[in-house]
Specification:
This protein has 254 residues and is an alpha/beta fold. It contains eight helices and twelve strands. The chain has two domains: 135 residues, Rossmann fold, CATH 3.40.50.720; 107 residues, Dihydrodipicolinate Reductase, domain 2 (2-Layer Sandwich), CATH 3.30.360. The strands form two sheets. The protein has a seven-stranded parallel β-sheet, sandwiched between helices. A five-stranded mixed β-sheet has the order 8-9-7-10-11, covered by helices on one side. The protein starts with a strand and ends with a helix. It binds NADPH dihydro-nicotinamide-adenine-dinucleotide phosphate and the ligand O=C(O)C1=N[C@H](C(=O)O)C[C@H](O)C1. The site of NADPH dihydro-nicotinamide-adenine-dinucleotide phosphate has 25 residues, from helix 1.
Length: 254
Amino acid sequence: MTSIGIFGAAGRMGRAIAQVAAEGGLPIAGGTDRDPAGDIAPGIPMTADPLTLAEAADVLIDFSVPGALSAHLDACVAAKTPILIGTTGLEPVHHALIDQAAAHIPVLQTGNTSLGVNILAALVERASASLGDDWDIEIVEMHHRHKVDAPSGTALLLGEAAARGRGIALANHSERGRDGITGARAPGAIGFAALRGGSVAGDHQVIFATDGERIEIGHRAENRIIFARGAVKGARWLAAQPAGRYDMKGVLGL
Ligand SMILES: NC(=O)C1=CN([C@@H]2O[C@H](COP(=O)(O)OP(=O)(O)OC[C@H]3O[C@@H](n4cnc5c(N)ncnc54)[C@H](OP(=O)(O)O)[C@@H]3O)[C@@H](O)[C@H]2O)C=CC1
Ligand SMILES: O=C(O)C1=N[C@H](C(=O)O)C[C@H](O)C1
């Protein structure tokens, strides 16, 4: 049976993944965390060394911080162990590192591992392809008060889907963090707004607005277990793939 290693094991997602793996009877090879001293669950060995963990596991799941990604990828490439990356707040430099690693090992990177959000992304791409660019696209997300990055990885994933539908590059058309005298909305822009508060696990709404009418479609995550289930399913799928870069579409058959 596929054994799982968890980078960021003591975090909110790391613990949810350990719970889902244990409920499914999947072996957990161990975990790392910034401070690996604390036990996250009985019987899960914690280590400070990503390579030790990558050598012990059949597949790695990473829900930690962007600053740790380079070391995690190096360890997985050295150990030839596949890695699923759920960490968000990634910059172009991180995506370049992922592309390099994916030449040697299977790497799955996604801003959201849930089935619902990936279905929503497919719907957004279709709607965006069907509607003219006189329909403005805005993406609104809300998360718990502890979240450190914005827009969320999911909002960006949905923005990429909308841009794909329109045949444009998101990087050249996104409007983020409006404040003050911003000027009118740029034609064809994809806008992002981020709310933070309380314990919200993850709400996303995509609004298509034109003169006289609006379409609104969205997703609400009620807990983190939905992300953990998707991540464990994705990791088991990834362990059987050849080297390359993947997202959740292959896992979910979308
Ligand atoms: N793709 C998806 O579906 C989802 C993605 N996420 C993303 O996953 C990430 C983690 O989220 P969440 O679990 O809520 O955050 P947490 O802050 O609870 O967990 C992150 C963990 O990583 C640890 N960490 C920090 N540095 C390192 C390091 N160098 N090596 C190993 N571990 C380290 C942190 O330790 P310490 O606290 O001591 O710094 C913390 O325990 C975020 O980027 C979030 O946006 C979340 C949910 C779903
Ligand atoms: O930090 C979180 O909690 C979440 N992060 C992901 C994101 O940035 O989209 C996924 C989910 O919405 C929860």
